[in-house]
Amino acid sequence: MFIRFFSKKFFIQYAVLFLLTIILWGDDLLNPSEIHVNAGGDDIFGFFGFLNTHPLYIVILSILLLYIQAVVLNQVFENHRLTERNHLLTAAIYVITLSSNSDLTQPLGILITNFILIILLNIVLNIYGRKEPFRHVFDAGFLIGLASMIYFPVVYFILFVWIALMLYQIFTWREWVIPVIGLSIPYLFAGTYFFWKDSLTLELSHLSTPFTRFSPLFFESTVYFYLFSGLIILLILISLNHALREQRKSTIPVRKKTGVLFAFLFIALMSGFFSGEILMRYLLITFIPVSMFIAQYFTGLRKVFVMDMIVMAMLIIMLADKYLQFV
């Protein structure tokens, strides 16, 4: 039922997806008082202070941001022929996976980071077949620098750009150096600002923390967490195996772009080693490519009953975790 329904893309699918997003975030809508934004530094223009005073706005912003980026992500993969056209499966899977962790709303940062990385992924996929893509690689580096100012381990995605260039067989030195220049631009402006505010030393110490101190990993070890994690890991392993087998049947452009997505997933997992106690939140980045791999697997199925039952079980587990606390 779930797979067949979101295998189409009409107004009703968009509406149900938005309703599903609201339902999965309903516990935060009902109890927004526990939500807060950690500024982590200067409260520019009083924005974070305003949100902490009105936590309901944080939840509303999160719902809108998640819904919009899910639709954008779905369209990105369609445009590059990585998924079937005219369906919302990728968006629906993305909404479900990113709504699984209620702690997601607390800093609001991972949603903004993911949106930036979705734009980054689209830019990198667009590099394929272009001669001298100087603007594209600069934009990619700039977005990595921007996202890394929210979660610093994202800086390792510069390796993702270089791996993509290797897959596209682009080996001229300018395309490899320009992303580093783009990455440095946000830090140049931020460094100037913090130097002017006399807080540059403090901010530099925050940036060096992932390299000088490794925090213990932190997991929410509830029954619901283990059940949901077990099912999503099962889906991920099945879909990745399917993607690897289908590689040989794909066209060259699709094969190379799928390789770029595997590189994205690898760098996201690798950089997670430097995220410390925020590992579970940071690893939500991996669901950008994983959502596509799962959707790709679902659309290739002739019989969807078993997979439908798994997805419905995941939804029931999530709803039980979120709403039984109010009973």
Explain the overall architecture.
The protein is built from 16 helices and no strands. It is mainly alpha-helical. The chain has one domain. The longest helix has 25 residues. It is globular and about 50 Å long. About 3% of the residues have low confidence.
**Series of H and E elements:** HHHHHHHHHHHHHHHH
Helix count equals 16
Structural class: mainly alpha
Spatial shape: globular
Per DSSP, what share of the residues sits in E-state strands of 2 or more residues?
Answer: under 5%
Number of strands: 0
Average of the residue pLDDT scores: 84
CA-based gyration radius: 20 Å
Give the number of domains.
1
- How would you sum up the major sheet? none
List low-pLDDT spans.
39-47
Distance between the termini: 29 Å
- Tell me roughly what share of residues is in helical segments: 55-70%
Structure keywords:
327 residues, mainly alpha, 69% helix, globular
